[in-house]
Amino acid sequence: MHRVTQAVGELAVASHRRPAVFLGLVAALALLGLWGSSRLSLNADLSDLLPRSFRSVRDLDVLRERFGGIGYGVVVGQGAEPEALRQFARDLAPELEKLPGVRFVESTRATEFFADRGLYYLELDDLQEIHRRVKEREKWERRQRNPLFVQLGEDPQPSIDFSDIEKKYGDASNKRLAGSGEPYYLDLDKKMVVLLVKPKGMSSDLDFVKGFVESLQKHVSRKDLTRYGSAFRVAYTGTFVKRIDQQSQLTRDVATASTTALVLMLLYLLVHFRSALGVAFVLTPVFAGLLWTYGFVALAYGQVNILTAFLGAILGGLGTEHGIHLVGRYTALRGQGESSEEAVREAFSHTGGSALVSSLVAALTFASLAFSEFRAFREFGVIAAAGMLLVVAACLLSLPAMIGLATRLGWAPRSREAVVGGGALFALWGPRVARPIAWGGAALLVLLALQMPRARFNFDFNALQDSSLPSFVLDQDVNRILGYSMTPVILLTDAAEEELALVQQIKERKAKLGKDSTVDFVAALSDLVPRDQEAKRELLESIGGILKRVRPESLEPALASRFEQLKRMTEARPFVRTDVPASVRRQFEGVNQTEGGFVLVFPSVETSDGENVKAIAREVRGLVLPDGRAINASGENMILADILEMVERESLPVLIAAVVLVLLAMWATLGSLKEAAICLSPTVLSVLALIGLLPLAGLRLNVLNIVAIPVLIGTTVDAGVHLLSRLGETGEG
User: Which of 115, 319, 466, 656 has the most CB atoms around it within 10 Å of its CB?
Assistant: First the structure.
């Protein structure tokens, strides 16, 4: 350690003597970093954060190749009368289908098709029961019309109410996809109509998403919308629109966080140093180090993710601390009569050495995250570790040079008292009340420790995004109008028989789990083409013939209104896959318009809740085909489930690894296990206090903010090393 601190001091003296050389080197590297950082992009897609070794990631790649993008771009017309809304859908749907990047547009349901063929979806036993009931009714009516018929006892009127049979098929895919009668995706109460635009590309391709959404909005903006009503307006939502809004929101948040951090640092430094030059001494090396860091990110990764985007504010804060310590120590030594060069040597040998040690330790803390399989954690750890070292390197190289240059231009720091005043007062006052502070802190820590069992992990993905954005709010209305989720889990198959086998397995699991099931309904193209249609056709013809002999006026009013529909249903002919309307069939076609091969499992629970996502994954995984082959579910929900399980699995080991690495690093650099333990004790207490404080503040850790723990470790270790080093200099350690 002595050799390290001595080398740091000599490097600082060399920089102080040759400011032009060192500042030129720092500036050249900063320019390279600026060029690299300008080429960085922001990736807000969580599905890109798992390693390729995960089955869910590989399955999603196959799914995208065969099925295309999951989800839709949604155009919503609002504020008009129902017929005007329907006309808007009729006018716009064929126009949108012609736009580049659009596969198809869904503007209506196949309501009439499924309603007319509803009896084909019943099992033969149930259809035979309907036949029996209709036959009984027809016989009863014949008896009532027969003048020779003598009723010897009660002859109850047989009912042809089939609601009990219909109830058994309430969750059938044909029922759910057909809707409740209105062919358009229409909400009469909110005066809203929905068009679902299926893109050719993927939501992970940000360039495609931007072009796709801009194309939709530009086309609609050119239309004369006043023809649908003076209050008519158009809004946009869906997976692809939400992706753009989330990306824009994250970009704004990064800019806001960085600006806020910069303003707060400037205000504090101005108050602390009361000198613009002192502020420049601290912030210039930090900015240079950050540019180096983002240059490294551009070289290593080419983009930042939803977590590493905020590292600039974190590294800026940690780097500023080094500058405050070094400039403060330098000015104090100059106030004691030291020359500029000797003050630089002394300050950088001790305080600079401490900054280097604390940065190394903090880098190791962040590096512990690099062992995570979760890409967001791994990249955060690697970039933060590199950033800590680059920022301290920029500080050690440029700050002595800046001081040397300022000294040559006639600058001299103010007295020690003017700079340190408030801190010196606390340093004099603190030891006198150390015992009460210690007992008070211990009592507070005990109270916070008692709250630790109440700390919870937040699995709600809405906590990771601004769900108050208009597209996110509107998305909930669209899901309600559809009656099911727009982001199903998808199973890939190779044959119609496999589709039917998987549909049956999902239905059996749903029935077994009962109210605990997370499946709303399951659908496949093969499942929409009923079996035994020829046998059912014979029964339907027989039922139809019997119904012709039933008088509608003799029926109860509720049944009389459905009598004509029932007759129409008996006239339906058998059909095959190609007869299914395109508005439905296209949902089960791949990117090359190949039929089948896809089973869609629609969740019944809110997928923004991570617990629900994990439950969905458990319910749809482990499916087996008749030949014994395993089938894996694909989709964003599977990705999110893996992310949550990974974070749960890795959080404690990563935390333990961070603490152990920090302790070992400090022991090696400080040369004393006792001093290392002393430096680490505030870290342990701070982490425990933070976890205890969370339930009191109504906060929870989540899949992203959990990285605050290693940041806290790095910060407290940094402060501990500096304080212990300063005590060692004064002989009071």
Answer: 319
